[in-house]
Amino acid sequence: MKKLLVFLGILGTLLLFLLASASGNASTLSEYYKLILTLNGILLLALAILVGSRLAQLLKRVKSKVFGSRLTIRMVLMFSLVAVLPGALVYTLSVQFLNRSVETWFDVRVDNALDRGLNLGRNAIDYQLNDLQRKANVIAWDIHDNSMSVLLERLSKLRDQTGVQEITLFDKNSQVHAHIGNEYAGLMPNLPDRKIISEAERSNYKAIESDAEHGLIMRVIVQLPGSELSNRVKLLQLIQPVPRQLAQDAELVEQVRSEYKQLSQSRAGLKLIFSLTLTMALTMALLGALALAIYLSDKLAAPLSVLAAGTRAVAQGDFTQQHPVISRDELGILTHSFNRMTRQLSDARDTLEQNQAEQAEAKAYVEAILGSLSAGVLSLDEDWHLQSANHSALRILGLDPNRIGTLPLSQWNEAYPSLTAFFAHTIHGFLSDDEIWQRQIELDAEKRVLLVRGTRLTQKIDGSEDLHGYVMVFDDITELLSAQRDAAWGEVARRLAHEIKNPLTPIQLSAERMEMKLVDKLDESGAEFLKRNTQTIVKQVAALKQMVDAFRDYARKPSGKKRPLDFMQLLKEILVLYEAAPIVCDFKEHGSLMVNGDPTHLRQVIHNLLQNAQDAIADAPEQRICLLVEKDEKWARLYIEDSGKGFPADLLPRVFEPYVTSKTKGTGLGLAIVKKIIEEHHGRVQVGNATGAYVRIELPLWEETTSG
């Protein structure tokens, strides 16, 4: 933009100078006035296009609300007013002065003075011409009767006396009879053409003619007296040059008068040319000033726009903005202050980010610790709203933070009715006077037991405690309690097996000996009575021994050796013993299912489950036992489902506990032993009700076990 303005300024100045020079008629450029005017018009159009495009861009920036555009257009208007007002005033005064000056140039007195000067010059020349005619007449009378022998001598004297330049005597046929001239005359006479000769025959001829060599000359032709009576008319011609100074003055007056008349006739055109030139110069100057105003306004507003852009970037968090200081004025000071501010903000942000990173690292460390805990942790604010919860807490309680939303703890039961008791106990604990409270809460729906500890979060300020919220830590101790019960039952079973089994054998032997010693000494009825009671004692002792053996099996530590075995092959071998049972098998083509287990214990598990299923369908209208074997990436699964009545709802949560059974006979140790053996094999067991009761056991595949 700067180079373009400089180029247009130089070109405009040159064209305006040429236009001003061509405005005068006396200028050598006047004939190129139209061409120069056209070039100025083209330059003016280019300036108008440039200014128009820049103004359009500026208005577009104003509509787009670009920062600094309003200031730029305001400065453009101010610069334009500064240029337009003086320019308009000078233009108005110049036009008026020009019109008055032009009118003054063509004053009537000047016109009259020129006419009189021209008449004066003409009169002086006419006087000399008349004088020359008079001399011609005198000479003609003097020589009209001279003979040719004395004619030349006489003409020479007369020329010397009269002072004329050239005297020639010739006839109408242009035949020269005599010719006398001074040193300025040519060797040959300057004869007129036939037309002038014809005119001289009719009457005397006098005229002022222009000669290329001598300038203005006076020519006078008269007839010799008496020659018209003869057959040959003789003509006397006198030629005298007009005095050079008089000729020049007359020519100058004539030229000035002609130019004056021409200018006087074209005064309206002169006014138009001068006005057009002045208007062109003014318009070009105004457009140039406007273009310069736009350029300067942009230059002045550009640093402000840059600072505004930097301010917006800082507002959006970009503190890297640094702008060069290109001046030492107030704008430079402002730029320097802006750079210093951004550096300070950047340093402050770096410090803040470092602190936040340290806090985030500490928070992540705490969250990692909480996330790795098997215990659940919940934190609440002072209004009982959930603040944070680790994964274990959400898993144990089955909570969804999105479902809880902004509900306080007292309303969580609306989203989770099954946890109403848990929420009530926790609220009661927090409202108690204990600083740290502990509860063992049972979830009725799942028969799970949670050990919950809670405390209030307080901070002492000015000697008083300020409440900031609550925190609770809880863990699912159901398995722990189950393990404790299993250990207790194992100890009971071991003691029972030890204390009960020892007296059973003497009792059985004593009963059998009594029968053997006394049966022969009693009558038939007595002997029969003795045998019946003895057999009863023996049978009950055998039953007690069987029960003691079951307790012993439950209480003893795992025995046997585990080895890789094909679970499918083991299952098929066992099912051979149950060919008469209504068992429906669904064995998919899994091939071999290799597990790491003890065959004896696994046989005991399957026998117990199949025996329980047979007992369950004994009184069922439809007797059916379904077996299903599945396999996934890590587990071998066995489903056993019967068509019986299923487990009673009140016993289902405790079916793996000893002495928990719905049978009229039995010890209730079958499923407890199954659970114990499966857990010894690192497996899982699950029971439930579908069409009847079902049991699902899962054993880890041997490949996974060895690779792990």
UniProtKB/TrEMBL annotation:
Recorded catalytic activity of this chain's protein: ATP + protein L-histidine = ADP + protein N-phospho-L-histidine
Transmembrane parts of this sequence: 32-51, 71-93, 272-296
Enzyme nomenclature, EC number: 2.7.13.3
UniProt cross-references to Gene3D superfamilies, sorted A to Z: 1.10.287.130, 6.10.340.10, Histidine kinase-like ATPase, C-terminal domain, PAS domain
Membrane-related topology note: Multi-pass membrane protein
Domain HAMP: 298-350
SUPFAM superfamilies noted in UniProt: ATPase domain of HSP90 chaperone/DNA topoisomerase II/histidine kinase, HAMP domain-like, Homodimeric domain of signal transducing histidine kinase, PYP-like sensor domain (PAS domain)
Name of the protein in question: histidine kinase
Organism listed in the record: Deefgea tanakiae
